[in-house]
Structure prediction request, 211 residues.
Amino acid sequence: MNKPESKSQLKHGRVISPASRSAIATEQGLILDWEANEMEGGKNFPSLTAGPFPRPYETDNGSLMPPTDGYILSGSKTDSRDCVNFTNEEMSQKLNRPFAWPLLDVNPGETFRVKWVYTMPHVTRGYSWFITKDGWDPEKRISRAQLEPKSFCDDFYTQVPYYEHTAELKAKTEHEVKLPTGKQGHHVIILLWVVADTGNAFYQAFDVNFK
Prediction:
């Protein structure tokens, strides 16, 4: 079995609509599909510490170390997947041509719908959404200081403990969120698929333009 086939055993999932930074990086030839599926890091974000998942879900598997600043969008991956953390300038240097992350036009308060494809649909706690704060600097990599301090939506299953409800805690192929009001211009949205039976979440990032 060659390396790509063996590596495929580690695939998990990614957003296929709308285009995330992972999808764009794949289109640019910077990462492979399996790498886009593995933007995986500790699920206690935005905390910097590993350990128990917050109440009332403390019976879920504890979190591994969450991503460090500058590597949040890749779920802490520092290999070729680091490109999803790149600023426009870094991407332009990498591609040796002018580049800007494409922006998805959205309206404040509108419903934002996503579709996932999973190759390993883990027992799921839910989905958590974060966004950049007003006045964030797109010429710098995403850090906690660039983000609103709390998620703007947590779409979590409430059944606990997870191991008594594994048939119910299913990864969602399609789901949606109401975007924050009061935002204008370019922002980055981070979506976490939070897994109950491992210490990780899967990170997906979107560049949007609030009209």
In short: The first helix runs from residue 3 to 7. The chain is about 10% helix and 25% strand. The chain has one domain: 3-210. Strands lie at 13-17, 40-42, 104-106, 111-118, 124-131, 153-156, 174-178, 185-195, 200-210.
